[in-house]
Specification:
about 500 residues; alpha/beta; Rossmann fold; Helicase, Ruva Protein, domain 3; 5-stranded parallel β-sheet; 21 helices; binds adenosine-5'-triphosphate; binds magnesium ion
Length: about 500
């Protein structure tokens, strides 16, 4: 029950149902008014600032989604909850896109609605107390789980918005740990296929001989050990998205079969004479340079073009270091999230804190996908035993994080923060000594001879590339952008420096 009476407008064309709900809500302390149509609702909204609007989606004239949109346009703080009929989850998703906070499916128990209202009110309270922080969060979570405000990330978000609603094939490239899989999932969850499956297959994790059957399935007796028939990943992803990770590792023979599946959307299960047709969006990812592999004959050119319809290149973390503080904050929050006070920590939270739904219902996923700010965290990990986990980083620790080249990118950063949290047990701040050794040593790029090889090793190529980029940037800074003098500082020919600059600039 709300502390202060909340003014609630209920919009429902079935009079008996509307009155019954209104009576029950009044009993629970809400100040309720009723409207029998969308038009009537708008008239009431025009002269009264309701806190909450609960509307049926299917209304005789103006529909519930339009009512929500109008209500939110007039009162951005209003909590709009929609009531949907059976099997109209899509409409609910549409309503959420247009500003609804949550939805309740018909038929519902009054308790369900009360729960949804309670959690919405709680969250809105938090929101107004914390409006500024919250605005930042929403900005950050435009695509849930993808944190970043650097220019390259802003461009990425724009691109994702454009491509998510389509079914075009996408090729995501980027170093290890840059978020290729996160991005692939975000595309799926923000597009029309979100109601169907996202099926991931790491092509490098499966022996070549089994990969074909894994992709396309097999029939009984197709090979030794094929005791029954089995659908492959393509079939499993029917109407959804198939994520082919490390696609560069596939043999040339299999590339050919994949090409046909992509072109014709049909294939045969291994050992089958019958052709199977599917409707699948393919997102491929690789951390190798497929363009170069094509030039060297290791990858089919036609397949490359088929996959590379929309290329998405993820920048390495060292090229968007301004995102590091934000990422650190994100991981600290994620890793130290306290258990739920109601003791239901074991259950995954429903979208935006509403009541948990049955796992079989596709709705929560859908809602989460379109709701900025929705959290995807599962069971919170306990931080250091019985002490409050650190929530900040010392300036010096942050300076080291900023100086480190992050060959393992965001994954490595996340691991580093997790480790640092464990080591900082009992203190409220993470300090330099809590960081992994190689990061503690990170500082100005070291002079030759003083570089320490961390116990965990380095990615030599990207490490050297970072040093090269930094030295070039410094030489240009020192010479105010004079390429001739910068080249002399680096003992390079001017043309060589220009070449290198071009290569560097091609990266996002
Ligand atoms: N922009 C981001 N914001 C927050 N977390 C991120 C972001 N990008 C990646 N992560 C996190 O970093 C980790 C690695 O991401 P992911 O698995 O998508 O990388 P990848 O590019 O597929 O790596 P690999 O090539 O090694 O498979 C995950 O835990 C993911 O949640
Ligand atoms: Mg991956």
């Amino acid at each position: 029950m709300p502390d202060i009476a909340k003014h609630l407008l209920i919009v429902e064309d079935e009079t008996a149902l509307r009155q019954a709900i209104a009576a029950q809500l009044t009993d629970r302390g809400y100040e309720v008014q009723e409207a029998g149509s969308g038009e009537e609702a708008l008239a009431r909204l025009a002269d009264f600032a309701f806190d909450i609007i609960v509307t049926d989606l299917r209304l005789p004239g103006m529909d519930g989604s339009a009512v929500v949109e109008a209500a939110v346009a007039r009162y951005p703080e209003i909590i709009a909850i929609v009531v949907t009929g059976y099997g109209t989850v899509k409409d609910a998703v549409e309503a959420i896109k247009r500003g609804a906070w949550d939805f309740v499916s018909k038929p519902f128990q009054i308790d369900e609605l009360l729960l949804a209202l309670g959690s919405a009110i709680e969250q809105r309270q938090l929101k107004s107390e914390n409006a500024y922080l919250r605005a930042q969060l929403e900005e950050r979570y435009r695509f849930e789980g993808i944190v970043g405000r650097s220019r390259s990330m802003a461009r990425l978000f724009q691109l994702l918005e454009t491509v998510a609603p389509t079914s075009s094939t996408i090729l995501i490239t980027g170093e290890t740990g840059t978020g290729k899989e996160v991005v692939a999932r975000a595309i799926h969850h923000n597009g029309p296929r979100r109601m169907h499956r996202f099926v991931a297959l790491n092509c490098s994790a499966i022996p070549e001989t089994l990969l074909e059957a894994e992709l396309f399935g097999h029939v009984r007796g197709a090979f030794t050990g094929a005791v029954g028939s089995r659908a492959g990943r393509f079939e499993q992803a029917h109407r959804g998205t198939l994520f082919l990770d490390e696609v560069g590792t596939m043999s040339v023979a299999l590339q050919m079969k994949l090409l046909r599946a992509l072109q014709e959307r049909e294939f045969e299960r291994v050992g089958d004479s019958h052709t199977t047709r599917v409707d699948v969006r393919v997102i491929a990812a690789t951390n190798s340079d497929l363009g170069r592999m094509v030039a060297e004959g290791g990858f089919r050119e036609d397949l490359y073009y088929r996959l590379n319809v929309i290329p998405i290149e993820l920048p390495p973390l060292r090229e968007r270091k301004d995102d590091i503080p934000l990422l650190v904050q994100h991981f600290l929050a994620k890793l130290t999230k306290p258990p739920r006070p109601d003791g239901r920590a074991g259950r995954p939270p429903a979208p935006h804190g509403g009541p948990a739904r049955e796992p079989s219902a596709p709705a929560p996923d859908a809602a989460r996908a379109v709701r900025p700010g929705a959290s995807d965290e599962r069971t919170p990990r306990p931080a250091a035993a019985d002490s409050r986990p650190a929530t900040t980083l010392s300036q010096e620790a942050m300076r080291r994080l900023m100086a480190y080249p992050w060959p393992g990118n965001i994954r490595q950063l996340e691991n580093a923060i997790e480790r640092a949290l464990a080591f900082s047990a009992g203190r409220s701040q993470i300090d330099v000594t809590d960081l992994p050794a190689e990061i503690q040593q990170a500082d100005e790029p070291a002079a030759p001879g003083t570089i320490a090889l961390p116990a965990s090793g380095v990615d030599l190529e990207s490490y050297i590339a970072t040093i090269e980029r930094e030295l070039i940037e410094r030489s240009l800074e020192r010479t105010n952008g004079n390429k001739g003098r910068a080249a002399r500082l680096l003992n390079l020919k001017r043309t060589t420096l220009v070449e290198k600059l071009k290569r560097l600039n091609r990266r996002p």
